[in-house]
Amino acid sequence: MKKLKRYQYEQYAILCHLAYPDDFDHTQYGFLPEGREEIIDRWGRPIIRILWGESKEVVLVFKGSQNIWDWLLNLACFPKKIESQPKPYHVHWGYHYLIHQKSIRRNYAFHQCHPDLSDSQKLDIFQASHLTSYRNQSNYNEIIKQIQAVIKPLIESGKHISLTGHSSGGAMAVLSADYLHQHYPNAIKRVVTFGQPATGFWSFKKHYPLHQQTYRICCDLDIVTFLPAIPFMHWHVGQMLWLHNGKIYQNIPTIIRLSRSIISWIMRPFSYHFMQKYIRNKDFFDKH
Predict the structure, then answer these.
(1) What is the full per-residue pLDDT of the chain (288 aa) written as tens digits?
(2) How far is the C-alpha of 252 from the C-alpha of 220, rounded, in Å?
(3) Domain named Fungal lipase-type: which ranges (predicted)?
(4) CATH classification for the domain delimited by 6-286, as one of 1.10.1740.10, 3.65.10.10, 1.10.260.40, 3.40.50.1820
(5) Which residues, other chains included, contact 182 with Cβ-Cβ below 8 Å and sequence gap of 6+?
(6) Which strands, in side-by-side order, build the sheet including 160-166?
(7) Domain residue extents for the chain
C-alpha cells in the first residue's frame, strides 16, 4: 500500500477546510483560473468543488454537514441496496441519498464574470454559450451525474481523479469514488477523508475496490469517526491513520483507539503537570 505523503495530506486538509467558506481564491493553490466547477445544494451553497490545474490531478472536494437537514441524514443509517456483479452490496442510505440528490452545476469562472445577472439570466447565457461539451448538458441532475459530466472530458485528456472530504463529505467522497470506479476503472488516484463516519455495511467493505488508494484520517477522540454507533453493522474501508498525542498510528483496531482516547481524555488535566509541558513553553521566557 502506498503511503500518503505529508505534503499531500496538508493539501487535502487545506482544501477540506476551505470547502466551508462560500468562496476562496483557488488560483493561490495551483489551480487554473478556469479550473473550477461547483455543484450547488438546494440552499444555493457549494457542496462539491471540482478543481484542476496544469498537473494530471483533478481534486473533488466534498463539504461536510452544515445544517439540521444534513445531520438528520447522518442518522438515516439503514441499508440501501446497490445492485452489482457478482453480488449486490449495501451502503448507508443517508450518504447514498446525498450523492444522488438533484442539484445544480455552476461554472465558477462564468459566474464570476457576470456578478450582476440573476441566476436565471446566468443559466440562459450559460447554456447558450457552448463553452465546452460538458457545459452544454442539462444543468439540473443528480450530483453524481453532475460530477461525471465535469470529469469525463478531463479524464479523456489524461487526468486522474482524487477525492477528499470532511465528516459526511468524506462519506460522500468514498461512495462517489466507488461509483466512479465502476465507470472509469483506472481514473481514481486516491481518496483522502477527515473525520469520516462509516459509509457501508460488511458487504460494501468486501466489495469496495479502492482499499489501497483510500486513506481515512482520524484525530484523537473524534466521536464522528465511531459513527454510526451500531457495533459490527457499519464498516470503514481503506487505510486508517490515527493522529493521537503527536503520533500517527496506522490501522489500529477501533476498540483500542476508543479506549486510548477515553483514557487520554480522563488523564488530560493531569498531563499538564508533566515536565515536558513546561519545557515546551520555555520560549515564553526568551521574550521577556
Answers:
(1) 567 888 888 899 999 999 998 888 999 999 999 999 999 877 778 899 999 999 999 999 999 987 788 788 888 889 999 988 789 999 999 999 999 988 887 766 555 554 555 545 544 544 444 334 334 445 678 999 999 999 999 999 999 999 999 999 999 999 999 999 999 999 999 999 999 999 999 999 999 999 999 999 998 888 888 888 787 889 999 999 988 877 888 888 888 888 888 887 787 777 666 656 566 555 545 554
(2) 12
(3) 59-230
(4) 3.40.50.1820
(5) 84
(6) 140-142, 102-107, 31-40, 46-53, 57-62, 160-166, 188-194, 214-219, 239-244, 247-250
(7) 6-286
Q: 3-state class of 232 per DSSP?
A: coil
Q: What is the pTM of this model?
A: 0.81
